[in-house]
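Teaching assistant here, posting this on the class forum so everyone can see the example we discussed in section. The complex has two components, and the goal was to see what a joint structure prediction looks like when all of them are supplied at once.
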Amino acid sequence: MKQCWIIILGALLSASLHISETWAHGVIGKRFFPATLVVDDPFASDELDLLKVNKGSKNEDGTETGVGFEYSKRLTPDFELSAGWQYLFQKPTNGSSTSGAGNPEFGFKYVLARSPDHEFLFTTGFDAEVGGIGPARVAERISTFAPGLLFGKGLGDLPDSLKYLRPLAINGQLQVNIPSHRRTVTTTFTEDGDIEQDTEQHPTTIPFGFAVNYSIPYLQSFVKDVGLTAPLANLFPIVEFNFETPISGPGKKLTTAFANPGIIWVGKYVELGLEAQLPMNKGSGKNAGINALVHIFIDDLFPNFFTWTPWGVIGPTQQSK
Amino acid sequence: MIRFGKRALGGVVVLVLSTTVWQTPAQAHAFPVRSDPRVGWTVTVSPPKVTIWFDGELEPVFSTITVYNSAKQQMDKGNSRVNGPDANMLEVDLAPLASGTYHVYWKALAKDTHVTEGDFTFAVDKK
């Protein structure tokens, strides 16, 4: 054990002395993409969602609020592993409020292609929620697996006649959410000695969505300095749209849909985001929810530490393929 | 559990505040804050130089500005430099400019070796 610590300490020291040319997280060409709150961004990064809050809209099941974090770690410039966790507060329509730890979520992303000149990135990813870890009152007993595709595109290559649209950028995500079990059956014995069985269906779903942001930093740095100063100069007005369509089970083709307008502020080491979650159809809920994010650029805070890997400090993430 | 949640939230707030207040300007990539001439603006006299201020300190080597006219002729004097007393400032001297639109290309190497780059235009209209 002692030897292990010495090896780790030695590796960290060597990493702190090592310097290599690296590119900033979330940057493709001259475009910076902020971390989005609902739709995942396509970048492989060393980053930390220190605090992620979603107070969901009230639907027929009730309301759920999740408070959690997610840590992402690159192993190569194009490959990222992530782990996240949420604490859940549930208020069912019929029943009393409850809370508890949700199931842990793990994932990876791999950047398939990037074009700095066109501010474009195309990525594949995989997420998994490991069922049965959190308490049954709030967490699913089954696992879910979600392979998917992600992209990001800045509009910086628009012609001069549309130059005020160049600060716009869009990033999107398409997944297939596959449950480990189609249905679960819960058997209980009543006071009369009878057996009751409750069957819960777990449909395969297609979550998809996209986010559109207007970068004030991009406007002022590359199009026209309109004279905004901090903190306004660091803003990204944004709207995210997310949908989920079941493709099996009793709720087939009942798509839930939300619009999430809000604002993101990006500082040197911290990003703060706040959005309203507005249901777009009856099945999605009744009233507005809230999304909030505190995101730390850990690769800027301690670059040599957080971009370290067993095979050296990671080099540029922005490279032509 | 709720009491634990409040404590955890307090810790998070303290950590966030400490990271936002913590000034270690030599450890982040550099993005432009402002420039002279200003991005996208028109000036009435030929500016003697182009200056860009960044939000972080730059490494003098590999941090450059080049300026081209609409005929793609280089109009800077090739002497890009990080201003000595202010390592956040990158500048380059210009040859006298006629009326027209000019394209500025910059590349900045931050102290932590993050590279950022970009471009913008400004115009000269002597009337």
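For the discussion questions: Residues 189 and 195 of chain A are 5 Å apart (CA to CA). The first helix of chain A runs from residue 2 to 17. Think about how each of these relates to the inputs above.
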